[in-house]
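>> Question from a student workshop board

For tomorrow's exercise we were told to take the sequence and the ligand below, predict the bound structure, and bring the output to class. My setup keeps failing. Could a helper post the expected result so I can at least see what it should look like? The ligand is zinc ion.
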Amino acid sequence: MRNTLQSDARKLSSERAQRLQALIAQLPKIELHRHLPGSIRTQTFFDLAAEYGFKLPAHTVDDLRPYVQVMPDTPADLGHILRGLGDFQRCLFVSPTALSRLTFEMVEDAYREGIIYLEVRFSPLTMAGESLTFQEVMQGIRDGLDRARERYPVRTTLLLGLTRTANVETCARIVDLALSLAGQGDVVGVDLSGDEAASPPGVFVDLFDQIRTDGRLGITVHAGEAAGPQSVRDAVELLGAQRIGHGVRAILDSDVVQLVRERKVVLETCPISNVLTGAVPRLEDHPLAQFLRAGVAATISSDDPSWFDSTLNKEYYLALTTLGLSFEELHQAVANAARGAFLPDAERAQLSAAIDSAYHAAAPQFHQLLTPQ
Ligand SMILES: [Zn+2]
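>> Workshop helper replied:
Here is what the output should look like for this input. Compare the format with yours to find the bug.
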């Protein structure tokens, strides 16, 4: 199935659309769901290929695009995208210095999008590949974060990823690593990702019990993306997920929507990704507004901005124009993200206050632009 992002349900003149984009660019933003491997600049492939002497199948940024980005004719299939783009970029994970560069550039790009709080996730297993140890992966990424912190006022934290398709012993090693780094500032949680349709959560129950018992790390689980509402229920009830990556298919079962609302589970929806991976047929069908109106703590993230050629600015713009959110609902989604951050209470309160004051101040300008004339 091919997809389209072209639709623009709230018809704006191009002048008003530009003004809206400029206003959105000024808003402080929160990104709870961004993968490091999905946030790599295309030019960096060429720079690292020259530095480390590996070959690429193209000589220009445009020609490399089909290897590093979802294209209009790429099937809307998560497994296909993960195998294609995910596998190709492993050539970059060659040294701690290379990982430091990728991390630094990701934070720099986030700063340019107006992101003030960023939780980045990655699988130590994928980043280590055949050539690096977990320690080298962490060293490279934390070095990139340290350098970015000196330059940019973006609070950035890390989520260590477990992959559904990896064996249990490897996942146990990652849990040990995460627990050994918990409380050291930048590692704040764990994520479970990978093809949920192919691998239910059964084997992860004991590992997540260990994390919950320890209590220092947040838990987020990709669910309700490639599989149905039961996958969201399992993530909450069996794995103790406080947040769900995507969760869009929860909308298909009102009992699961109720469960998520009652337990105050945060849904990290990523509208552009959700359409391009086939989790939602079209942007107009995205359930974000429905979740918010049902009192669910839904949020907006970009998932893999370089794979999907997106930014959080573009996501917010589409939320207001195509997904049918009012400005107050956009504010609610960002406030939900502040409250869902895996940060100490005092820091979350500060983040919420910063968001509320900026969004209250911006509201009159947004109302003026979004009111039909
Ligand atoms: Zn994701």
